[in-house]
Amino acid sequence: MLVLLGCKNFKCSDLKSEVNQTNYLQNRLPLREMPYLELPPGAIRPKSWLKEQLQRMADGMTGHLDEIYPQVLGPSNGWLGGDGDGWERGPYWVDGLLPLAYILDDADLKAKVSPWVEWTLTHQTEDGYIGPVPFNTKPEIMPGVQRSNRKDWWPKMVMLKVLQQHYNATGDERVIKVLTNYFRYQLKELPNRPLDDLTFWANRRGADNLQVVYWLYNITGDTFLLDLGEIIHEQTYP
Fold this sequence. Notes:
The protein is mostly helical.
């Protein structure tokens, strides 16, 4: 995460960046004012040693994991609409690949990220659910492939960060609509199906969910997000 010092006295218009300046958000009331503001992916370009390290990631496993691990990250992945792996591994990979793609301004990496983001944005259900569709019957066990617990809250939290980063990098307004609908879905579902409904991971990592809830609140001002934040906080392991 890149941050900017002295944001209280900083004017976003002073930053020489091609990134949409509405991304430089301060907390709305009643949230506490932030001492730092996050810079969107691509606002700062790496040079020298750091650029070399990032390029090594792009040239190595990070940039080619779909080719190395196709049984999990190939077209059968549930986050691409397939009937294969549908839990955390795909979102985890894209969560690192997306910022790398935009920091390096690498067209090939952006092309690898795009199908994951597009499928998630275009396959939201009417009730607001995002992610792999659960199987009607118990899925066949495939060694090394996580096919169960598709409705678990935890993998969604990773994809929420992906969508947040995608918006920060591109300004894609579809993200705002999809996240708003998903968080309304959470507000309705969590009282009856809490974070630890299927696994304990979301119960331990609720802050990952919460940070995107408050980020969206700072953009839209929708007060239902504050109510959702309270529920997520209460359901998260202290």
